[in-house]
Amino acid sequence: MHAHRKGRARRSPTTHQDRRTVLSGFLFGCGIAASVIDLFIFHLALHWHHFYDLSTTSVALVSDGFFHAFGWFITVWGLFLLADARRRGSISWTRWAGAVTVGVGFFQLFDGIVNHKLLRIHQIRYEVDLLPYDTVWIGSALILLVIGAAILWRSSRRRDVRATAGSDRQPGATETTGAAETTGAAETTGAAETPGTTGTPGTTGN
């Protein structure tokens, strides 16, 4: 039981580091989806919609400003978490990239279902048939979620395999070190006993 607790204590820093890495990637992905993909492309470049389209144009532009600020806030938050994780230890960039992909897909799915269909505060585009737009929007979000989750799952499996292999090699290394220490101790003892044994007959002869 005590050994199990010690094992959990040894694993906790690595687990905490991994969670911090994944969280930073997730927040960064959500922020990029909000501030770059949605706002810059669909709001500013294409002018397809605003964040809140149920009022006047002025209100819509103000809502875009708040939405822009929120998007960049979570983007910078994710980068700060990433910098802190790098300061604490090594980063698994594969897991971080998987978390970013999940973040992009999650935000896009949330926007497509909650904002577009449940709250209806805006649509992807107006005066067109929304079915193909909604299908592409939500379908691509689901694809991104599946790809990101697969990356995280595969990288987690590889990490567990490496950890198991490392724990299997530790007893052998300990035994080798113990044998080397025993041999060194035996040689040291033999070397210490040799002068004393040689000098004894000389003393008796006197």
TrEMBL record:
Keyword Amino-acid biosynthesis: no
Name this polypeptide is given: DUF2243 domain-containing protein
Superkingdom in the source lineage: Bacteria
Ranges annotated as biased composition (Low complexity): 171-206
Pfam family, one: DUF2243
Region annotation (Disordered) ranges: 163-206
Membrane-crossing segments per the record: 21-46, 66-84, 96-115, 135-153
Signal sequence, renumbered to the chain: none
